[in-house]
Write a structure and sequence with these properties.
Elements lengths: L1 E5 L5 E6 L2 H4 L5 H15 L58 H17 L3 E4 L9 H11 L4 E4 L6 H7 L5 E4 L6 H6 L2 E5 H11 L1
Parallel strand pairs: 1-3, 3-6, 4-5, 4-6
Antiparallel strand pairs: 1-2
Helix pairs in contact: 2-3, 4-5
Length: 206
């Protein structure tokens, strides 16, 4: 599958042959959903916590006598029925992470790449490098290219000047190829891969 290669000046510099085993997989929404849920679940802190009746401070004396008052039987003020008492079945500190098979994770990444290719939102860049880390200069290039929401995936390492210039641009994310993931690919409108990124991703996923 042939795809044009451009530079940051929006000029064609050649073409590249995309591996169909990685960039032409059938798009499955269920696989993408599983991968996104798996990623977001790992990000959750799970730090929410309430106090149970055993953790609330208070007196241990009996509230009132057992019989003769005409009221329900209570032995402590720390139960959930009283104001300031503990919470029953409330949230506790825990991990929300769950497992996802490696084969499913690989298939999901292939599917995400293939979906961008199928939608015509995959762009191949010859290199993501700048001579100077100037945000204004990069912003002008992005405007010319028409990238208002884009994820740029480079090779093993990201050019330092490009990363610094892109840091203050809203809607632009930059990742090395090893950091490519389903959630970041789907949350941006345009996926930009350098030629080095394509080689690394094909080697990683094939």
């Amino acid at each position: 599958m042939k795809c044009d290669v451009i530079n940051l000046d929006a000029k064609k510099t050649g073409d590249v042959d995309l591996d169909e085993a990685v960039f032409a997989v059938a798009v499955r929404a269920d696989i993408l959903a599983r991968a996104v849920n798996w990623q977001l679940a790992k990000r959750r802190g799970g730090k929410h916590k309430v106090k149970t009746r055993s953790e609330v401070q208070g007196s241990t004396r009996k509230v009132y006598r057992q019989k003769g008052g005409g009221r329900a039987r209570h032995g402590t003020l720390r139960v959930n029925q009283f104001r300031g008492g503990g919470v029953t079945f409330g949230p506790v500190v825990r991990s929300h992470a769950h497992g996802l098979p490696k084969k499913v994770r690989r298939l999901a990444l292939k599917t995400a790449l293939s979906s961008k290719q199928a939608d015509g939102k995959l762009v191949v860049l010859d290199s993501a490098k700048l001579k100077a880390a100037k945000t204004a200069g990069l912003a002008k290039k992005l405007t010319k290219l028409g990238w208002s929401s884009a994820l740029v995936i480079d090779g093993a390492d990201v050019d330092a000047n490009f990363a610094r210039a892109a840091a203050n641009i809203v809607g632009l994310d930059v990742l090395p190829s090893r950091g490519a993931n389903v959630y970041d690919i789907l949350r941006r409108d345009t996926l930009v891969l350098t030629t080095d990124a394509i080689e690394n991703l094909v080697e990683r996923l094939k």
